[in-house]
Amino acid sequence: MSLALAVAVVLAFSYFFYRARQKNRPEVARESTPPLDAFIAEALEQELAGPVLGLRGASTEERKPLAKTLRNEPDADVVSKIEEKVKSVELEFVRYAHESDAEVTVRVRYENGEKGETSKRLPWNDVPEAIRSDFDRKGGSRVFRTWTFPWQRVQVL
Predict the structure, then answer these.
(1) 27 or 30: which leads in pLDDT
(2) Dihedrals φ, ψ of 125, to 5°?
(3) Residue of 102, 60, 65 lying closest to 80 (CA atoms)
(4) For residue 129, with 0-12 CB atoms within 10 Å meaning exposed, 13-18 middle and 19 or more buried, which class applies?
(5) What is the DSSP string of 15-47?
(6) What is the pLDDT, as a whole number, of residue 98?
(7) DSSP single-letter state for residue 51
């Protein structure tokens, strides 16, 4: 009986300790949203088809391996070509005074010095929490982020 009581006390203590730690952890602001992710994948699919895969004016079917790779289903050949040609991908968020949306630009810089970019306006609610927080905290009209491809991201368990 006393062993069961001791186990119950240890379990209860562990539960309350765990809950207390969870409450004290700062909440991580999200760096992305589904609409932003969709725009980035679409912009990169259009941008990279020509310079990386040599498929200027490619059909949706021809871009399918690239599309899958950008949506976290990597194709080894496509990843190799992207890694060889793309130096970096940057995001620029611009918030205009008295407007209820933000302009997002996906800027690709290539190893050969060239660059490509695509822009779109997103409703303010589709802008990630972390970006909105940066605008509020810094008071500026521009926020920048480096974007990484899905296969480059470290998965933390």
Answers:
(1) 30
(2) -70, -20
(3) 65
(4) middle
(5) HHHHHHHHHHSPPPPPS--HHHHHHHHHHHHHH
(6) 85
(7) T
- Could you count the other beta carbons within 10 Å of the beta carbon of residue 69? 24
Q: What share of the chain is helix, strand, coil (3-state, %, to 5)?
A: 45, 20, 30
d(CA 118, CA 151): 22
Q: What are phi and psi of 156, to 5 degrees?
A: -105, 130
Reduced to 3 states (helix: H, G, I; strand: E, B; else coil), residue 64 is helix
Residue ranges per domain, the chain?
30-152
With a cut of 50, say whether residue 17 has pLDDT above it.
no
Q: Within a 13 Å sphere around the CA of 109, how many CA atoms are in the beta-carbon half? A: 9
**What is the tens place of the pLDDT at every residue in 87-97?**
999 999 999 88
Under the banding of pLDDT at 50, 70 and 90, the label for residue 23 is very low
Between CA 19 and CA 130 the distance in angstroms is 25
| 24: number of Cβ within 10 Å | 7
